What we know:
The protein has one domain (about 5-265): Pnp Oxidase, Chain A (Roll), CATH 2.30.110. It contains 4 helices and 17 strands. By secondary structure, the chain is mainly β. The strands form 3 sheets. Strands 9, 10, 11, 12, 13, 14, 15 and 16 form an 8-stranded antiparallel sheet that branches. The protein has a 7-stranded antiparallel sheet with strand order 2-1-5-6-7-4-3.
Amino acid sequence: xxxxxxxxxxxxPYVVLGTIDRNDDAWxxxxxxxxxFLKPLDPGQLHIDGTLDASDPAVEGWxxxxxxxxLGIDLHARRRARLNGVLSxxxxxxxVLTVRQAFGNCPQxxxxxxxxxxxxxxxxxxxxxxxxxxxxxxxxxxxxxxxTFFVASYTDQQDGNVRSxxxxxxxxxxxxxxxxxxxxxxxxxRGNHYFNTLGNFVHTPRAGLTFVNFENGDLLQVTGDxxxxxxxxxxxxxxxxxxxxxxxxxxxxxxxxxxPLQFADGQPSPQSLSTGAW
Length: 278
C-alpha cells in the first residue's frame, strides 16, 4: 500500500470489512477502535487490533488464509482507500491483513458525517440480534430511508486457488435503493471506472450489503444473489444510473447498536443531489 494510505488507515476510528462465509456468501461489517488500532507494519501488511463479535455474520470469514477486503473511509472528509488481500494471521485480539491490492477512490456520492464514540470500543458488545430469511418489515423501512450502504463482492480465479474479495461504498439520495419484498434494486452511478464490484458480480453474482443507522450504530447486514441490468426501459427510470443491479436477499441480520459510534449529520454529496429518484 502507498505510504499515505497506511497513514490514512492509522488515523481512522473504524474500518469497513468484507468477508466470505463457509457457504460462499459475502458479508460486510464495520470494526471500530481507538485511532491507531489499524497499524501498517510495512507496505504489504496491515495489523488490526480487535476481532469480530461472535454474533457478526462476517465472523465466519475472519480466519487465517481467508480473502478479506478493507475500506478505510473518512465520511467527514469524503476520503477513502481500499485494501484487498488475505488474512495471514488471526488471533483472539488481533489480525494481520496481507495486502494484494491497494487503491484510492474519489469522494463522489459520500454523505459527509462526523463520527464520535458512543461507548468504549474496546468493551464487548451486548445487544439484540435478529436473523431472518429475506427481509423483515423493519429492515425494508431501514433500507428505504438509507442514503448510504457498503457492499462486499468476490471472485475466484479460474483455477479456483486464489479468491479475491472487495468492499466498497455506495451512496445516493435517501430512498435510492428500491425495495420490493425481498428484492433490492440499486442504480449504479458513474464512478472511478474500476468496476471492481461489477466485475466481481459478472463472475460471482453474490453480494453482501450493510446499512448503518448513523444516529445510534445499528447495523443491518444482508446477503444474497445479484442480477445485472445493462439496458432496457427500467434503466431510464432513475436519472444518473448507467446500469442497475438487483439483490435477491436470502438472509438478513439486524444487530442493535453493534457499532460503538454515532455520526453527526453533515452535507449530502453534490453528485448524489444530481441524481434522480424512483
